Amino acid sequence: MATKFYLWQKFLSRFRLWKSEKIPVIIDENPNLGYEKKSRMYFLMIPIIWLLALWVAIKKKILGPNLKINTFWFDGASLICRTVKENATTWKALDIIYNYSPGKNKSFSGRITDFWNQLNNIKALRNRLKLVQQKLREEIKSLLIKEPEIRLLSIASGSAQGVIEVMSEFKQKDIPIKAIFLDRDLTAIEHSKKLAQEAGVINQIIFINKTTRELEEVTRGFSPNIIEVVGFWEYRSKEKAIELIRRIYDLLLPNGVLLISSISPNLESLFSYYVGNWPMYYRNLKQFIEIITKGGFKPQEIEIIYEPLKIQKVAICRKSI
User: Fold this and answer.
1) Mean pLDDT over each residue of the chain, to the nearest integer
2) What is the pTM of this model?
């Protein structure tokens, strides 16, 4: 089930930020995916979030940016929050967020961890995982109607948990998917190998420990018809993001699909930056679309899908014949 952004598109079009007739923008609300929603008491968290962000910003201004503990109420009291902070922007932090189960630890530290687990940014990351997996399933099924096999490229693959789980689902249906996982972090490659081994799909994957500078070289002869880039664009400037899209466009076969994510500006952005040590490029809808179209995709080839909290969005870009 999905809700179209008709009213928002109409509002944005008045300011020449949006042309609703060209690119569909959807909020995915599929009840079967178990999306996480905003807490009823979230409005009570906002003052705490902003006050702590301000306090840590002042501390960093006075004491320097590299504090051992940003605040007792986050990385001081909770070892899990500290581990996420120390591994911010990496697959290790995402692995904790994706697989965290609240309510198991009743200690003070556990309750602090559970409290921060209610942040919308944290919920949106897990929603993004569910959204990307569902769209991967749909695009694979669609391509299988025309293509004899699926060749998937995951750029900055990280742990690749979501992709591996989808590959495992299709293998159980006797539909093996060939994949290349590209990541510059060797620990990410090793972890994804472990997950792939456990899922029984390791023989379908080529693991490459290199950077995107060698993208064309490592994919020579592979010809992907699906390219997945999730959690990577958020750390690239506009110029580098456009360049990457152009290269991806050239790599994709006709009828091929790009799935790419982006994070929207939100009430927790300063908290993530100062308290979580997690700097990112936050892009609104207009900026997101501008980069994709400057990268080579036509408006009619693009669909934008938000998870229910409207923080994480995913573009489905289908290259025309």
Assistant:
1) 93
2) 0.92
